[in-house]
Amino acid sequence: MNRTLSFILLTACIGLLAGEASAQNNVIRPKEVWPDTDGNHIQAHGGGIIRIGKKYYWYGEQRRQGLDPEYRYVSCYSSKDLVNWKFMGDALKMKDPDSIGRTWVLERPKVFYNAKTRKYVMYMHLDGPRGGGSGYLYARVGVAVSDKPTGPFEYIRSFRPLGHESRDIGQFIDDDGTAYLIFEDRPNGFHIARLSEDYLDVEKDMCLLKAPIEGGAIVHYKGLYYVLGSALTGWSPNPNKYATAKSLEGPWSEFRDVAPPETRTYGSQSTMLLKVAGRKDTTVIFMGDVWKPKTQWDSRYLWMPVEIGDGRLWLPEPKPWTINVKTGEHKVVGKNPL
Ligand code: DGJ
């Protein structure tokens, strides 16, 4: 190879590597536009995350502009580092499955992987008024199943878990692998319920917290369960609160603020607490939605590592930060202009 050709090839390789490096991002910026690996703002609202091997899958409400109004969509993204997310397509695209009516809603989808049946099982909040208008009267969960994490998920049925009304749902997988659905049952409170062996049903109420809490999330950290949720204020943020217990059955402590109440959880609403246990440390991430009800496609995410331990859970002021999923360590790396 002559010298000029080698020089051109070398320059091209360096250029490619530099391009690759600049496409990779390692900073999570709470409340800012969060581009996926194609440069589009991530659409996974009211979402949940599972880890399969080395990959994380993030499912949520797909709310990009230009969707067919007859359908509701659940998006799926994958990542190895929790920062760079590749859009894997809409894992579920579905028409009104139960003749709820034109304004039916599908919210807060959560996916569980059942290692015994090798099925991915999606729970979703199905709601709407019967016969038009607006309202959340149907109050059910829907279940859909897929052989692959990315779908397509096939809708199976809807039901009221253990006979109760169910609106916001959350997911919790304990350290022993047991899967739980958290659901808000307005007349009564907030349930933490175990799924059946095949995950296709909700089998056992572990406890009913008599508190008006939605956006439910749980983490098991150093022998204590922390449950977190928001008040019932629609799309408007409010001071989210948490309680603790040694067992899911309770007794649970009183609910306490997770952030200075005047910040209204820094304008966000809880959707999940994600535990990243690495070689050196464990980081628990508060995953929240910053809703923009009139421009839902622009709704943002507030992800921030929490201060946790000895019965205290605290969401610090949001700032850009990094995480290393292998070591489990995180680092705040700047000030947040928002
Ligand atoms: C609050 C819930 O947390 C959201 O998921 C959504 O259902 C809004 N209410 C609708 O007002």
Describe this structure in words.
The relative contact order is 0.12. The chain has 2 domains: 42-167, Tachylectin-2, Chain A (5 Propeller), CATH 2.115.10; 211-338, Tachylectin-2, Chain A (5 Propeller), CATH 2.115.10.20. It has helices at residues 3-23, 264-267; strands at residues 45-52, 55-61, 71-79, 86-95, 105-114, 119-127, 140-146, 154-159, 169-173, 179-185, 189-195, 202-209, 214-221, 224-230, 241-245, 256-257, 269-277, 282-290, 300-305, 307-309, 312-314, 321-324, 329-332. Strand 5 (105-114) and strand 6 (119-127) form a beta hairpin. It is 7% helix and 45% strand. The strands form 7 sheets. Strands 1-2-3-4 form a 4-stranded antiparallel sheet, with no helix packed on it. It has 2 helices and 23 strands. It has 338 residues and is mainly beta. Bound molecules: (2R,3S,4R,5S)-2-(hydroxymethyl)piperidine-3,4,5-triol (DGJ). (2R,3S,4R,5S)-2-(hydroxymethyl)piperidine-3,4,5-triol binds at residues 46, 107-108, 168, 214-215, 234-235, 269.
